[in-house]
């Protein structure tokens, strides 16, 4: 990725999904500070924009 911003991450995920021609069940990232905003009981709380993007 060019940088570690949320918009760049979403753009890269979009490009990857388009190249695969489908959406995987899970997408693993190595940039948890961008994807999650907190942890509750050991589970990640995802950034609302990531959740909205996944729904789209």
Quaternary structure annotation: single chain
Average pLDDT reading: 83
Specify the overall morphology: globular
Structural class: alpha+beta
Helix content: 40-55%
**Low-confidence segments:** none
- For the secondary structure, the number of strands is 2
Widest sheet, order of strands: 1-2
Largest sheet: 2 strands, antiparallel
In words, what does this structure look like?
This protein has 56 residues and is of the alpha+beta class. The model has no long low-confidence stretch (mean pLDDT 83). It has 3 helices and 2 strands. A hairpin with a 2-residue loop joins strand 1 and strand 2 (43-46). Strands 1-2 form a two-stranded antiparallel ribbon. The protein has one domain (6-55).
What keywords describe this structure?
globular; 3 helices; 56 residues; single chain
How would you concisely characterize the structure shown here?
The protein has three helices and two strands. The protein is α+β, with helices and mostly antiparallel strands.
Topology:
Elements: H1 6-20, H2 32-35, E1 36-40, E2 43-46, H3 48-55
Antiparallel strand pairs: 1-2
């Amino acid at each position: 990725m060019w940088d570690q911003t949320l918009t760049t991450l979403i753009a890269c995920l979009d490009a990857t999904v388009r190249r695969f021609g489908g959406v995987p069940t899970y997408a693993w990232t190595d940039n948890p500070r961008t994807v999650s905003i907190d942890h509750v009981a050991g589970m990640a709380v995802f950034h609302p924009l990531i959740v909205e993007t996944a729904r789209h």
